[in-house]
Amino acid sequence: MLYGRLDAARERAREVLREVYGRGGALGTRQAMVEREVRASEQARRLTQLDGVERGLCFGRIDEAGGRRTYIGRIGLRDDEHESVLIDWRAPAARPFYVATASDPGGLLRRRHLHTKDRLVVGLDDEVFDLERMSEGDRRTLVGEAALLAALRRGRTGRMGDVVATIQTEQDRVIRAGLQGALVVQGGPGTGKTVAALHRAAYLLYTHRDTLERRGVLVVGPNPMFLRYIGQVLPALGETQVVMSTVGELFPGVRAVAADGPAAAVVKGDVRMAEVVAEAVRERQRLPAGDLEVWLDGRLLRVPHAVCAALRERARAVRLPHNMARKLFVTELLKELALAEARAVEEALKLAEMEFEDPELAEPLDLERDLDEVDLALASARLWQEDPVRQAVEELWPELTPQRLIGELLASPETLWQVAPPGLDWQALVRPQDSPWTVGDVPLLDEAAELLGEDDSASRSASREAESAWEEQQRYAQEVLETTGLLEEGIFDRADVLADRHADAGADLSTADRAAADRQWAYGHVIVDEAQELSAMAWRTVMRRVPARSLTVVGDIAQTGSAAGARSWGEVLDPYLRGRWREERLLVNYRTPAEIMRVAADVLRAVDPSQSLPESVRDGEAEPRAVRTGLAGLPALVAEELREIGEGRLALLTPDARQAETAALFPGCDDLEAPVVVLTVTQCKGLEFDAVIVVDPQAILAQSPMGGQDLYVAVTRATRRLTVTHENGLPEVLAQLAKKSTL
Ligand SMILES: Nc1ncnc2c1ncn2[C@@H]1O[C@H](COP(=O)(O)OP(=O)(O)OP(=O)(O)O)[C@@H](O)[C@H]1O
Questions:
Q1: What is the ipTM of this complex?
Q2: Of 113, 363, 516, 682, which residue has the fewest beta carbons closer than 10 angstroms?
Q3: How far is the CA of 230 from the centre of ligand 1 (A)?
Q4: Average pLDDT in the 306-333 region?
């Protein structure tokens, strides 16, 4: 019956599309065109949404004490009488499905999970909250087996799936938390932080569509691999207005993927780098060694050192970004050069006077009196065309791009030495001029962009124009809404939303496209996943993108792998939120079987004894094991593991230095969806695989100051089987594997 409704809704959408396009040809008035455009794009969007929910359309049912039954699904559907037959999982009416517990059933008698395959119900799971109040007939319909465990046993695909059918109460609290303020979701590996965060994005977009459609939602993830892994979840939940980005992509025009070594990462992530960048900008506002001397057409124009210093002070005092203050500096300097030129001319005249001894020429030139503003302006404009003058300005106050400032700074030990505060290990930053951008450079570029400023006079006038065009669009959209009946149909309830979607400016760009291209875009909400990896400088970059501080911060302090990452949430967030953030903890591990978590527990104890281990919900099929083998033994081991997991996927997790040689053994292993992938620990952050082989744990421990955390991440990626290989013995923290294995 529900699929019948779905088909009918699809057919309706297709019909409208056919009708709209069928009119084709002569389009008539502009209003008719807009009307057609609006209807077509709305129906196309609806159709995509309807197609996306085919699988598992309805996955739950709740029975209330009063006899009412409600079906829960991926979208809401109504019957011909407009009665609701399926409730969208994000709607308030669906909430009891997620939050009812045995101790607090919230008026529910039963929660039923439905498993479907190709439109057929293939299994049911019931949880009964109040058997006493159930009718005899209903009792006979009860069925068992937990839906969650069934969902968790499914093989992994290389892409994260949505979990709308099995969201747990603690996750539901995270998903449905209010939009305002900052929420920290702390949880161990596999506790569903990422799925909860993505479902939260879908929930917020559904619940606060007005605000978030215009401002967009930004999801920041640790690496491109991870973004590919989670990329399908939001579209499957019907959401497309989301920008996904790594920190390395937050600065438009730069796509940084390279990582810094631990020493440089620590320094670049240090919040004192904000001072370094500010000093580097000031350092480019220079004074000449003595007086400024510019030779022009055989004449020397001299501006005294003290005057240059005064000009610099005046330009700095306006407190504008460097490139804007430069205009003031240049104007004033040109005036001084014009005066200097006039003085030089006077000198020349004096010489001529001495030569001809003509008393008529004796009257000296009074510059203040003889040169008025107009003369000065004309002289300045003429001087500005002269190369020697331009060169002098370039020396004293150059126009700078963030890329140029940071690129030149990092390539200059002298400047770094000069601008770094005492105690900062600036030597770790030095590198050749044309090095590729690293992820750690991006916050420095962003910082520089703030301090340099863009010349925004053109964009300001463009934005004034855009604003009046926007008002016009909105007036027009209001008319369209009134005359087309879209208002009554509930497709749009505000003219600005309609106008935004069809605004001429930026043609076909969605909010997400516009936001991603604009460094100064203020997002409506920002979700940071694997947030423990962000440095203090990266937080400054992220916070600039969310001035309203509406944030979800998701991570696990015990998994911090970056040497510049977080040691506590308070330390990174308090500078911006002054304690005004809430923390939710997720305590159940849905990924890793108990046997593997016992191994992880030893690693965690060594890394941070204060952190608690999440509890696994299920037991695994095999004990984790250690195998003594070098590179040559890996193919046979991989073949053996693949036989064990059947359709599933396997990852070899290696120390950074061994990735290339390991990957060479397995062609095609850089595709996340291949049956075998070879990744470094940094790349495997947030991912999971049916079987994992951790190669050379000793080298993983030794490769960075955060080696212990890295090993903890590596051993918690498997959903079914864990193998550790080594050549020269296991590290102490994995001693329990040695006891169990034949080495
Ligand atoms: N309620 C749930 N129902 C079904 N599967 C779930 C549920 N919660 C989590 N999972 C599954 O558990 C696995 C781990 O989830 P996820 O990757 O979100 O954990 P995480 O806390 O982000 O882990 P990590 O810190 O290791 O990155 C995923 O396969 C996810 O689909």
A1: 0.98
A2: 363
A3: 11
A4: 95
